[in-house]
Structure formats: structure tokens, C-alpha cells
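Sample intake sheet
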Amino acid sequence: MANLWSGRFEKEMEDIVAQFNASIPYDQKLYACDIQGSIAHVTMLAKQGIINDDEKDKIIATLKKIKDRIAAGEVEFSIRQEDIHMAVEGLLIEELGDVGKKLHTARSRNDQVAVDTRLYMKEQIREILESLFFMERVLLEKAEQYADSLMIGFTHVQHAQPVTVGFHLMAYFQMFKRDIERLQDAYDRMNYCPLGSCALAGTTLPIDRNLTSDLLGFKAPTENAMDSVSDRDYLIEFISAASISMMHISRLAEEFVWWNSQEFSYIAIDDSYCTGSSIMPQKKNPDMAELLRGKVGRVYGNLIQLLTVMKGTPMSYNKDFQEDKEGLFDTIETWKSSLRIFAKMMEKTEFRLDMIAQHMKKGFLNATDIAENLAKLGMPFREAHEVVGKMVKFCERHNKNFEDLTGAELQEIDSRLTPDKLSDLSIAGCVNARTSFGGTAPPEVRRQISAGQNWLEAQENTLSETR
């Protein structure tokens, strides 16, 4: 079959060029969006009197038939068709002849691919939002389950202060909440219709871009035709949001790998989310967490690849832009599957509170609370900080914990120290006292959980209303 643009050419592409030029092996994924855009376009052409209603009806009926054939696997694509747009149009012309040739009036593949990609992205963002909502629900459930359960809070991979497991998990809830908000913002910015921009400068034909935009469910048409066909910011923004979210997944995965080790033994991951060793029969490896930690690299790579493609391209459309899709499709599948796998793995993970309790005896987790209590009693905080530092040094030299210090030993450390000036030295007492907004005290953690549940329910309702 001759290319639909071949009138100006005397020679056909060589096979090696056709292979290198074609995007049909991967952009065929856009067939449903391409046909959806074509149906809206031809509907607008008929309303504007550019084609007649009979032609419109034949084209729409045939496009629907082509969609069903592709979905059923009855269409075999060829690299000679170049891309999904040419493939669908070629099938239409085979069926309808000259009537089929009218479909491409007042549009170009430049605006066609832009609308296809935006339609596809809107659909995929909704699915990814659902995966993020699922992750958030699991975090809320686990945080509620462990709202009172004590664990160690770290800074610099050193014992820092006591917190609750629920508090720790709610920190990740906030991370994924920001991921959701970023994705919603990206959705709003891409929700404009480029169809009708044509090659780069619009058209002399009396089209109605507002109508096509409405038919396809966009907020409005894009403002500038040249920008419309050369813009890939919305894809860069999407992959950037994916990269940040995958980094959050990787951070939690890293903690799962630590917590699963014998040195920590904080968690028990269900067998169904672990693997064994081919040589060491005792091993139970956290391979899903490790894979999730590793998957972030490919998404980062996709972001850098697209940024690099775009950085040196002049206005308006360039063939370089064809390189936007493989990394995009890979990012979508990687992000979606990573969220689902992690959420399901977390559902089946239990915290080993007995093992965590053993670790909490080390590291002087209640040091800050003692300093704050001295400050409450009037000692300048910097002075209190120094005094408690001396207490730590004394305990390290004598192999003691704060709770073991006698009144005489306190006086030896600093003459102002007496047992009655120290706060409740128990770990539970330290945690319960941290009632500041956003703190780790169990009632405050439950407030965070309740606020999170209300916010998540509102987001889920909003998403369902946009369908």
C-alpha cells in the first residue's frame, strides 16, 4: 500500500528506513483514542457543513467496525503504515474509498497524535489515581492498626526518638497524598484539546474547535496551534510526578528491606511476597521490596530521555517527538504495577512488636524529652541540651540507661539534676507526651488518620464524578 503522503515522492522508502521510521509497533496501543478523536472530528466536520451527514454516518460506522476488529485481534499492522493514525485511516479508505479520504480534512497527524496522547493520558491518570488511593487506604488501615504501637524513629540511621508505627506510616500517607495532588494538577493542565491545530498554524476551513473539545470531554481547546503540536510538557510533567512517587515507593521499600533483616526483624512479610535462594535453603528474601526499590531507575531514565529529546527541538513539530511514547508507556505500567504490588504486600505484612521492643532499650530515645522537661522547668534549652548530653556520656561510660541513674549520680553529672526534675522516662510516656499538632502521641496520630480518611474519601468521590 502506498503511503498516504506519497504524492510528492518518486521513490518508496527503503525497508530499513521504513523500519526505523515506524512507530506502529508501539503506538498501536492508542487505537481506541485515535478512533475516538476521529469520530469527534468527523462529527464536527458535518456540523460545520464541511462534509455531509451521510458521509459522516458512513465514516463513524466504519470507524467503530475498525475499532472492534482491532480489539478482536483481526487487524495485522505493518511498518509500512508508519503509525496508528495512518493505519486506521488506511483501513477506512479501503472500506469507503473517496468518502474515507475526507476524514483527514482540517487536521494533521501533528494535532492527531497530540489529542490521542492526551486522551490516553487522561484515562491512565484515572487508573493510577485509583492505585494511589488503594495504597493510601492500606496505609490508613495499617496506621490505625498500629496507632499505639511503639517503634524507633531514626535520623542519620541512628536511634533518635520514640514514635508509633502508625505515626511512621502516616508520614508515607502524606508523601503519597502529595503524589495524588501533583497528578491531579498535571491532569488539569493537560485537559485541553489540541485537535484542529492542524500541522502548526490552524486551518482556513470553518471548523469549530470548541465543539470537538466538548465532544472529547476536554475543558477547552488549546490556545495556540503552534504550541499545541509541539508541546510535550504534559508528558514530562507526568513522568516527573511518576519519578517523585516512585522515589517514595523506593524509600518505603528500602525500609522494608532493612526491617525484614535479622538485624532488625521489625516486620514479617508474607511468604507470598518473598522468594528463596537457589543454594541457601534457609533464605526468605524480600525480593518484591528490592524490585520496587530498583524499578525507580527506569522511570528516572524515561524522564531524562524525554527531557533530552525535547531540549534541542525548534518550533513546531519534529520527528524526534515520536520518541515520547515508549518511555511514557513503560512509566505508566511501572508506576501502576509498583503501587499495586506494594500496597498488596503491605496488607500482608505484620510488625513484630516484641522484636521492636528489644531494640528500643538502646540509643537513649528519651534524651530529648528530658531536655524539654528541663526547659519547661526554666533551664535554657541549649543548657538543658548540654546537661542531657553529659547524662548520655555518663551512662555510656557506666553501661547504664537513664532510668538506672541514682540521685547521687545525677548530682555528680550536674548539681541541678534531681529525680523529681526528670520527666516520665518511660518510652510510652515520651510518646504520649508528644501531643503537638502533627506529633506522634496516639490521639494525635488518630486525628491524622481521621483527617486522611476524610480527605481520601473526598478525592475518590471527585474521581468517580468525573467519569
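Comment: Residues 407 and 419 are 6 Å apart (CA to CA). The longest strand covers residues 158-164.
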